[in-house]
Amino acid sequence: MFDVFVVIEVVCGIIQNERGEILMCRRPAGKHLGGLWEFPGGKVEEGEHFPETLIRELKEELDVTVEVGGALQPVEWKDESVNLRLRPFFCKISRGTPVALEHQALKWCGVSEVFSLELAPADVPILQEIRYLDARM
Questions:
Q1: Which pLDDT tens digit goes with each residue over 86-111?
Q2: How does pLDDT run across 36-82, given as a tens digit for each residue?
Q3: CA distance 43 to 135
Q4: Which residue, 52, 82, 67, is CA-closest to 14?
Q5: Count of helices and strands (H, E) across the chain
Q6: What share of the chain is helix, strand, coil (3-state, %, to 5)?
Q7: Nearest-CA neighbor of 5 among 87, 74, 77, 86?
Q8: Domains of the chain: residue spans and CATH
Q9: Which of 24, 46, 62, 71 could in theory staple to 98 by disulfide, Cβ–Cβ 3.0 to 4.6 A?
């Protein structure tokens, strides 16, 4: 007998403000990876397209409406309790101001400052890709 690890599809948004800072969210204590910082987002529901999921999740988590832009490379990550494929997208807030409805805290950070945060492991490769793209511009 063997365990089959189902891959959970998850999306996240890289939201930047007018100063180029990135919105980071601190996971609630008591949840898986509680206290770590992450890009906001959530699980894809059956039949949803990735941008639809991101729009829904960011409204639920942050009470903002976003326009979904370009995608970055998906990240495959697993530990003893979860196996996920994280799909990051650049987003722009079109309506609202972020509010921590499901997170402990929110923080706007420069790219280099994000590296000083204790990040959820799946978010680290995304940040590295953002830094790479930022350096090329």
A1: 999 999 999 999 999 999 999 999 98
A2: 999 999 999 999 999 999 999 999 999 999 999 999 999 999 887 78
A3: 30
A4: 67
A5: 3, 8
A6: 25, 35, 40
A7: 77
A8: 8-136 (3.90.79.10)
A9: 62
Tokens 């996240």 belong to 12
What pTM does this model have? 0.91
Angle at 58 between CA 16 and CA 98, to 5 degrees: 55
Q: How far apart are CA 87 and CA 108, in angstroms?
A: 21
Residue 108 structure tokens:
């706007």
98: Cβ–Cβ under 8 A, 6 or more apart, which residues?
A: 15, 23, 62, 63, 64, 106
Helix (H) or strand (E) holding 93: strand 83-95
Contact criterion met (CB below 8 Å) for 14 and 22: yes
